[in-house]
Amino acid sequence: MPINIPKQLPAGELLKEEKIFVMDEERATEQDIRPLNILILNLMPEKEKTELQLLRLLGNTPLQVNVTFLNTATYASKNVSQTHLETFYTTFEYVKQRRFDGMIITGAPIEHMQFEDVVYWKELEEIMEWTKTNVTSVLHICWGAQAALYHHYGIDKYELPKKCSGIFAHAISDQTVNLARGFNDVFFAPHSRYTAVSIEEIENHPDLTLLSVSEDAGAFIVISNDEKHIMVTGHLEYDAHTLAEEYERDLQKGLDIDMPENYFPKDDPTREPMNTWRSHTHLLFSNWLNYYVYQETPYIWN
Question: Considering 151, 170, 229, 235, which one is annotated as catalytic?
Answer without folding.
Answer: 235
